[in-house]
Amino acid sequence: MDHYGRQPPYGDGGMQIQPYHGGPRTGDFRSYSASYATATENNIYDIKKGKSIERSKSWGITDPELLRKKRVASYKMYSVEGKVKGSFRKSFRWLKQSRRSFLVGAVREKDRIMWESICLTLAATAGNNIGKVLQKKGTIILPPLSLKLKVIRAYAGNKPWALGFLMDIFGALLMLRALSLAPVSVVQPVSGCGLAILSVFSHFYLKEVMNVFDWIGITMAGIGTIGVGAGGEEQVASLISVFQLLWLALVVAFLFVLLNAWLHIYKRQRREQELMEYEVVEEIIYGLESGVLFGMASVVSKMGFVFVEQGFSAMFIPMCISISICCSGTGFFYQTRGLKHGRAIVVSTCAAVASIVTGVVAGMFALGEKLPTSPSGRLLLLLGWLLIMLGVVLLVTSSRLIRHLPRSFRRSRQTSLERGFSTRWTASHVQKDTNPSAVIQAATLHHLLTTPSKEKD
């Protein structure tokens, strides 16, 4: 209260009346607990006995209540720190689990792409081989293929030939899709399993009889396909070197010059000796040349997709596909020459093995494809390649191998249906096919070919 410079009033008894500004603050008082009073009494007792109390210079250190509060605060601090550490630990655990799930998902995605490409390859090679057989079956009653309108209408109106042609084209498109997903070193060996699919198709659809070697070859090719799929890895697109492409072209050209020179020498010797039948070396050369061209066709097709992945123009895809078609056409030409005068067993075997080896080697050399990083994957891939090649060789040579079995075993395996079919096949096998327009791929069964094969004893 302001008294405007005057003295404050006095009350009764002469006591000066001061204005009331509220009670004392709680901070002006020190609160002592019962435990502190007990500790103080103990200190006084120790002093009386002559003991030192330097250990209790401050009441806060010896106050049990304060110590309890400090323990509670310390526990809370450590508990909060533990919560923080736990949250960090959970965060790192979540990151590790998410990284692991991401890697597992990526591996599963790669496996899915690999198996998808293998299934596409099997469907493509089945379409190619079955389509060739249907075309061959349709050309029996058709004239030789030419550009005349009547001939083209006759071929288009023939259902087996038209269906086989569509299956062949569809198989080629599926093969291109498979090459865009997987490396050539995986696609090309799996394409050799088309012979096994064709064998099963001929057994159930064309009622062909299969011997024990046919089934063994089919089983080996199937196991090899599973091995290639389990061991194959998706390849990272590497830079294609122009020098490697030039080296590859030079090696292929030199190989063809060498094979043709070798073929010319044997032809001249055969003419000098006035021999009508082809030598085994000539059949092998025709098979190798066609197989190398088939393998190079796959490599060139894959090369177009790799160029586009590296940022080049999309025109490389149709350009490489056109070159691939030229390689396949030239391979069909060499194979037809070999099948026309030589034995289908030798030509088909050499062509199938050469196409697989060429696709694998050229894919690794020119496209930078590598073997799997893991030892188990590398072993599975190599075993798959080996089993597929052995299965193809068994399928092609099964009819010749069955002759070396004991006669009693052959009789036990041969039924009346097989005897009747063997008689019909022998009669039709002797007839000469004069149709040069029918071209069969390297992976076609030799007993489905109507081309004559003059076997030498």
Key words describing this protein structure:
elongated, 15 helices, mainly alpha
Blueprint (SSEs and pairs):
Elements: H1 34-48, H2 59-62, H3 64-138, H4 149-157, H5 159-181, H6 184-191, H7 194-204, H8 212-231, H9 242-272, H10 280-309, H11 316-341, H12 344-366, H13 375-401, H14 407-413, H15 416-430
Tell me about the largest β-sheet. none
Rg measurement, Å:
45 Å
If helices are DSSP runs of H or I spanning 4 or more residues, what is the number of helices?
15
Question: How many individual β-strands?
Answer: 0
Give the end-to-end Cα distance, rounded to a whole number of Å: 141 Å
Mean pLDDT: 70
Bulk shape: elongated
Class from helix and strand fractions: mainly alpha
Helix content: over 70%
Our estimate of the beta-strand percent is under 5%
